[in-house]
Design a protein that fits this description.
With 96 residues, this protein is mostly helical.
Length: 96
């Protein structure tokens, strides 16, 4: 997988687009609440006291896996991050 890092030209284009099309009040969704489901990149430092993050295996139909992988590539994140976000969103929408 090739990663695309934004260039100065990309940032200039985004700034120009924002200047031409600023956010409207109805587009702002409010403050983002931290759910604790976002993992930090890399392993914790040896002496940090942080333990391992539990893992689980999920089987997905091929077409869903292709969609997850495509979204992950588009957002330059791992597929596990897309799945994690989906689970968090589901749990927020359907509390026990």
């Amino acid at each position: 997988m090739t990663t695309h890092r934004p260039t100065d030209a990309d940032y200039d284009a985004m700034a120009a687009d924002y200047a031409a099309n600023p956010l409207r009040a109805d587009e702002v969704i409010g403050p983002i609440e931290h759910t604790g489901a976002i993992l930090r990149m890399g392993r914790p430092a040896k002496d940090s006291g942080a333990g391992k993050t539990p893992s689980t295996t999920v089987r997905l139909p091929a077409d869903i896996k292709v969609g997850v992988d495509a979204r992950a590539a588009a957002e330059n994140v791992k597929s596990a991050e897309i799945i994690r976000r989906a689970v968090v969103e589901y749990l927020e929408r359907h509390p026990a």
